[in-house]
Amino acid sequence: MNWVPDQGREVSTKPEAGASMLRLAEELFPICRSITGNGVRQTLQILSRFIPLQVAEVPSGTAALDWTVPREWNVRAAYIAKLDGTRVIDFEQNNLHVLQYSTPLDRIVPLDELRNHLHTLPEHPDWIPYRTSYYSETWGLCLTHHQLEALTDEEYRVVIDSTLADGHLTYAECIIKGEIDREVLLSCHICHPSLANDNLSAIVVATMLAQHLRNAKPRHTYRFVFIPGTIGSLTWLSRNERKLGLIDHGLVLSCLGDSGHINYKQSRRGNSSIDRIVAHVLRTEPGDHRITPFVPYGYDERQYCSPGFNLPVGCLMRSPNGEYPEYHSSGDNLSLLRPESLAHSLAVLKRIVEVIDGDVTYRSCNAKGEPQLGRRGLWGGLGGLRSAGYDQMALLWVLNLADGQHSLLDMAERSGLPFSSIRAAADALVNAELLEPVV
Amino acid sequence: MNWVPDQGREVSTKPEAGASMLRLAEELFPICRSITGNGVRQTLQILSRFIPLQVAEVPSGTAALDWTVPREWNVRAAYIAKLDGTRVIDFEQNNLHVLQYSTPLDRIVPLDELRNHLHTLPEHPDWIPYRTSYYSETWGLCLTHHQLEALTDEEYRVVIDSTLADGHLTYAECIIKGEIDREVLLSCHICHPSLANDNLSAIVVATMLAQHLRNAKPRHTYRFVFIPGTIGSLTWLSRNERKLGLIDHGLVLSCLGDSGHINYKQSRRGNSSIDRIVAHVLRTEPGDHRITPFVPYGYDERQYCSPGFNLPVGCLMRSPNGEYPEYHSSGDNLSLLRPESLAHSLAVLKRIVEVIDGDVTYRSCNAKGEPQLGRRGLWGGLGGLRSAGYDQMALLWVLNLADGQHSLLDMAERSGLPFSSIRAAADALVNAELLEPVV
Amino acid sequence: MNWVPDQGREVSTKPEAGASMLRLAEELFPICRSITGNGVRQTLQILSRFIPLQVAEVPSGTAALDWTVPREWNVRAAYIAKLDGTRVIDFEQNNLHVLQYSTPLDRIVPLDELRNHLHTLPEHPDWIPYRTSYYSETWGLCLTHHQLEALTDEEYRVVIDSTLADGHLTYAECIIKGEIDREVLLSCHICHPSLANDNLSAIVVATMLAQHLRNAKPRHTYRFVFIPGTIGSLTWLSRNERKLGLIDHGLVLSCLGDSGHINYKQSRRGNSSIDRIVAHVLRTEPGDHRITPFVPYGYDERQYCSPGFNLPVGCLMRSPNGEYPEYHSSGDNLSLLRPESLAHSLAVLKRIVEVIDGDVTYRSCNAKGEPQLGRRGLWGGLGGLRSAGYDQMALLWVLNLADGQHSLLDMAERSGLPFSSIRAAADALVNAELLEPVV
After folding, report:
1. Domain DUF4910, which positions (chains A, B, C) (predicted)?
2. Which are the contacts of B27, defined by CB distance < 8 A and separation ≥ 6?
3. Which of A121, B369, C189, C374 gives the lowest tally of CB atoms within 10 Å of its CB?
4. Which residues of B line the annotated binding site for Zn(2+)?
């Protein structure tokens, strides 16, 4: 007889979960974050209402591998005003209006000179671009292309009330101790100002996942890092080199709130456990998904997967960086976030965690021939035990592959059954003393 | 020039062979077999007219790995009668009417109680189901759904004249000694009562294959086992553990007489020699076929391929268990058997045996450059030697791959030529002293 | 953002190069070559105007592996004349008219006997076939089928003014010393009389490639061998056995001038470096191409890839042997050669050479995290450095894979970027002291 494999336990994608994540994103949205500065501190303080955070402050000038922690940047105001004082562009309206790391300025600037310091998106004339100049000192403002076209006076007053001075780079960790000290690294960047999908979405999903894990008593130790992009991961790596050997699996999280399907970018290794685990979860999940090989462009996986570290770290996204039109512009605002997408991203991460923590290798105690399941009450007839989370085929697969060489994930992949069903069948066989773990 | 590979020797699928196998199936059909009892003994006695059989009788209660040989069951009569004595269901009409291993009974049973002991197939109301209760003591009868609907009296007399008592489990082996003691295991179950495709078809094909091999002086030793399903293979395995290391290849044979194409289910290993050999034969055989990976459900391959044994045993079938509507019902009767299917199954097995026995590894005696075939009378021009069973391309392939690393099957696979053509070319090269076997 | 990989440097397929190769082929076309004799000597003398050649003369009777160098054959005249002296078939018209290695003859032959010594192509009645009888002594002539049909006299005078006598087999080598003594073997057969694509095309392309390499100061040492087919490569192999270990890559060149696309036949190993290199070049080359696995039929790769040598030698062709209608007939004449095909074949070979010589393995000097490219002037923004022969993605790929395990070709394959782009990015990184070669 041919068996339709059961589809595993439904992971609920509760609409409430999505709504509460959206509310948190709304609270974080107006803050002007950058790779350093008070915006990051304010953000972490809000997150610490939900999960315990260890905040690190790393002084400017500290070496971070081949890089150096830059000066700290803070901005209080920035505007372009007509000479009569009317503000035509104002940071108060949208913090994307200021070029990140812009040096301070307060002077009358002729329009011709001003134009060289203005950034727009001609192809999306209603959106303000998100631009940075972290490592090359200059001043600048960003505006919509329509706004640029409306600048017709000969001169404008330009004010950028910013400070670029020795200070600190701020990041935070949330560590959830598990039964074992082998670690799972979850990393998301917190350096973007008022952009929603990139990356408030991942920040709120990571926060809720951490909250869930604190109650779940996981097997692995989970380490969440909330860091500014590039310089943050470089700094974190340089300060944690000796601990990296503990990392069994890792994910960079970004762009998890839009309406697109899940995209998983594999680790540099391409065949890490995390790559196989995510592929399995996505394969048994309804709906589309896409898995793409590693490329050395994207988010902080670039640093985690640099050749000297080569950590088993992939990147989980919905619409990837650069592949949605609103990317890195004011179009990436709260209207892009869907509560059901946030909830689904969280649910997928919970299933990934379920596999990470449940993937154990067993050896059958009765490996020669099939054990007689009938006298142990385990022969319910095929299909008869689905209420227990598995069916008879899952039992037979686990028994057949429990040779100490196949992990439960290997069994799920070979059988085509969902991991949860294999895990439940293994639990029943452990109870019947038919399996023992391989240590 | 591009060569159309020759298609190998035709293996005749003589209609006479099919007709004589069908006659043997007809003789065996009426016998009421079970996992123990006189039906099995009677069956083996008939087979021993064709091939020498070593019959084993294993006492009830004998341990067989995690199982125990059950009591022996025999049934002489079984019927449901109206109170006036008219029999409405009678084992005499069809031995499927009795639930296998039914306990004895002779009493008046109210219809309501009786219904709980009756088995039908509502979706096929004219067929009697085949049901067993080997390891859970109960009584029962099987009937067509139309027969069930015709039971309208308030009470019926139910008689099951069976015995369930200490006795023996019976199985047989037919061993054909070859040049070497490395073994090929061929296993088929003999426990089904009047069912034709499952498994009289395989019993008669195995018998004729054994008869053929006795005359063929094979290289390997061939061991045919005729056993009851599950408990039979468990019993055989438990009594032969020390010999299992001799098995190089194995096949479970079942359902070999219906009109479907060949289905091969791979061994648990998935890349055993037998898996490659069967795939090669089927690829060079006209007509459809299907190869499916191992699953831990089916016939006795479940036991041979349990993790503690993991023998290189696949399963050769036409329509597989559960995939034809008549499976495990009175619909699986002699009308399902086609002589040409039986003959084709036998022919395919003969080609498999040909590869098993002919797959040798050679080393070229002139490995540097091509030897000059012209002065050895082997350069007949391309295509010129087909009458000898091979063409010039087969010669060139064998010479090119005879590095002591490629077996003849490897060569057949790499060249796309049929094994028989490669084998014939190798024979010619051995005769010309251009090849020597690797020992 | 998704990057469209840049398409690498254009290798010019200058029409002049094609025209000058065609002129050389025109000069070589009328010469009557065979596996031995003055035609080969005359051919090599012409080639030596372009490249330095070391000519070898191997006496008849010399052992060459399983073969023996045959007697030398030369032919001065051959014709069929009516008894009145009118020549109806004349070697002067086309040197294909004489069967190669035909023994001498001068006598009146009855038409019936004569027919047994005449070779035609009935399916192409206007073409003269190319036929040989090197190792079986006989006489014969080749003619068009229309010419055969016009022979109606009862007797003809047949004159073959040939000599078959002890002499020499002639071949030549052109060795271009590189920085290292590891070798690249390029082999083409020079034994065909007036046939153009097979193989004057490859002879002229090889000559021009050798000329190019003499000026290019290559890293590897390049060894071109111009040899008669089969017996020539066997002779060369038997005289150079001890040097064969120096060969890292090899190609047999043939049929490189017709209008077909490139066909590459892999080495026997199937995964040699040369197989990967050619596949990469063809993949990044515009236009169709085809890659086929090794078969032990074709050109001298049969000898180089015999199991006792198993050299990493593939075969580069346009229309392969036997796959164009004019093959081995007078239809394979100068009209088949296209200057643009000759030039394209040369260009592809130059790109192959570029990969062979440029495929080095590096280790990053800053393997932990990405080095800061900005302060080294290497962060031109994505796509911004294409004028330097590479883009930012090529830089990132090289840095990411420079772990001492990936060669530049590995990087090109994994990234999907052309080798030339990866090579240029690596050069920039070497200049910036970010990479060091693995020795």
Report:
1. 23-358
2. B46
3. C374
4. 192, 198, 328
**B309 and B245 fall within a common domain:** yes
In tens, the pLDDT along C374-403 reads 889 887 654 434 456 778 999 999 999 999
Minimal CA separation from A361 to chain C, in Å: 31
- Mean pLDDT to the nearest integer, C407-430: 96
CA distances from A335 to A257, A326, B186, B300, B361 (A): 10, 11, 67, 60, 69
Last residue of one domain, picked from the residues C357, C372, C405? C357
Contact C330, C202 (CB under 8 A): no
With beta carbons under 8 A apart, name residues in chain A contacting B64.
369
User: CATH code at A210?
Assistant: 3.40.630.10
Half-sphere exposure of A276 (CA within 13 A, CB side): 17
Chains that touch A (3 or more CB pairs under 8 A): B, C
pLDDT at C391: 84
Are C425 and C373 in a shared domain? Answer: yes
> Could you give the dihedral angle defined by the CA atoms of residues A231, A234, A240 and A244, in that order, rounded to the nearest 10 degrees?
140
pLDDT at residue C5 greater than cutoff 80: no
Do A64 and A78 belong to one domain?
no
pLDDT on residue B387? 53
Q: Please tell me if residue C67 touches chain B, with a CB cutoff of 8 Å.
A: yes
Residues C57 and C80 in one domain: no
Q: By mean pLDDT, which of B122-126, B170-174, C133-137 is the weakest?
A: C133-137
A166 among annotated binding-site residues: no
Q: Give the H/E segment covering residue B229.
A: none
What b/e readout covers A400-420, taking b as 16+ CB neighbours within 10 angstroms? Answer: bbbbeebbbbebbbbbebbbb
| Range B278-283 average pLDDT | 96
Q: Which residue does chain C place closest to A66, by CA atoms? A: C371
Q: Are residues B142 and B275 in the same domain?
A: no
DSSP B196: I
Regarding whether C297 and C243 lie in a shared domain, the answer is yes
Would you say the ipTM is above 0.90?
yes
- The answer to whether A50 faces chain B, any CB pair under 8 Å, is no
Å between C116 CA and nearest CA of chain B: 18
* Alpha carbon distance B148, A296 (integer Å): 71
Q: What is the pLDDT of residue C14?
A: 67
Residue C13 has pLDDT above 70, yes or no: no
Q: In this structure, is residue C319 part of a structural domain?
A: yes
A105 or B8, greater pLDDT:
A105
**Rounded average pLDDT over C69-82:** 98
C177 domain residue, yes or no: yes
B135 contacts on A by Cβ (under 8 Å): 372, 374-375
- Looking at the 3D structure of chain B, how many domains does it have? 3
Please check whether residue C4 lies inside any domain of the structure.
no
Contact B47, B123 (CB under 8 A): no
Q: Looking at the predicted structure, is the pLDDT value of residue B402 above 90? A: yes
Q: Return the residue in B239, B297, B317, B328 with the most chain A beta carbons within 10 A, the one to mutate for interface testing.
A: B297
| pLDDT value of position A284 | 87
B262: domain range?
A: 15-69+168-355
C238-247 confidence digits (pLDDT tens): 999 999 999 9
CATH number at residue B156: 3.50.30.90
The segments of chain A whose pLDDT lies below 50 read: 1-11, 382-386
Pair C79, C159 in one domain: yes
Is the domain of A176 the same as that of A274?
yes
In this structure, are residues B285 and B351 in contact, taking their beta carbons and an 8 Å threshold? yes
Tokens, residue A70: 């830059």
Question: What's the whole-number mean pLDDT along residues B269-281?
Answer: 97
Q: Is A367 on the interface with B (CB under 8 A)?
A: yes
Residue C48 belongs to a domain:
yes
Give pLDDT tens digits for B119-143. 999 999 999 999 999 988 999 999 9
| Partner-chain residue, chosen from A367, A400, A402, that has the shortest CB–CB distance to B268 | A400
> Of C117, C140, C165, which residue sits at a domain end?
C165
Name every chain B residue with its beta carbon within 8 A of the beta carbon of A3: 297
**pLDDT at residue C213, rounded to an integer:** 97
